[in-house]
Amino acid sequence: MAKNNKSIYSALIANVLIAVTKFAAGAYSNSSSMISEGIHSLVDTVNQLLLLYGLKRSKKPADALRPFGYGKELYFWSFIVSILIFGLGGGISIFQGILHIIEPEALGDPTWNYAVIGMSILLEGWSLFVAIKEFDKVRNGLSWWNAIVKSKDPSSFLVLFEDGAAVLGLLIVFVFMIIGHHFQIVYLDGIASVMIGLLLVFVSAILARESRSLLMGEGIAPETQEKIRALAEQDQAVLKVLSMMSTYQSPTEVLLMLIVVFKADIDTEDITDSIERIRKSVKDAFPLIRFVIIQPQTVEGN
């Protein structure tokens, strides 16, 4: 279960430092885009704390109330994070940007803004670099997008998306700030704020989609299903696997149920032995499958 949280801690440290300086610089220079960036960093800070809380909750051992454990707590809190990015990050930034476009205010001294943006790019870039390295360890040769889609640990790609959006948002602010101050176009600051908001809404939509899929009960991949089917049907007492259902309880725990048709001429003891053999072979081949439930049938259709 996400044994290495280095990317989350690095993002948390960077965002705490950056949020304070962005708000101070935004207030000093009267820049709505810098305030939006401060909101962005503040939301990201809260997000990292929620992810760490979700990871901690997901490791609670199973009990009478949750016999399959608390692994899906991580998926729930990841979904909450995507909502926060949408509402607090994207929504407030867009709202504030529109206000500054309608009623633009005189631009203050941008010197501190440039200094804060430079420092923020360095810190966010460092955090993004750590997140990329950590995610690269688990993508197993897949393309980046396929690895994100197939990943069952949202804490890994959430930080990756957050840091990527943060760096891109800073670049947007930097470019629009230079143009706005050079040509004295006061409403460009508001446009930059709206663009940051739209960027966050786009990122939140992707993250919500992935988190929702896991929260709703995403199953194992079709190729894995075929391998499990082959393992079960190799057993001498099995005619065929009639049906297979699975769901990820956490990034490292899968619940699997097989409906297996056994040969008609075997007794209950043979079926019990076969079930144990199948369960062992599946768990040995796929360590992530923690729970294997096998429903026997002696004849198809019964």
Automatic annotation (TrEMBL):
Membrane disposition: Multi-pass membrane protein
UniProt protein name: Cation transporter
Keyword Transmembrane helix annotated: yes
Residues passing through the membrane, by range: 7-28, 34-53, 74-99, 111-132, 157-179, 185-208
A GO-annotated cellular component: membrane
Xref: InterPro entries: Cation_efflux, Cation_efflux_CTD_sf, Cation_efflux_TM, Cation_efflux_TMD_sf, SLC30A9
Main location: membrane
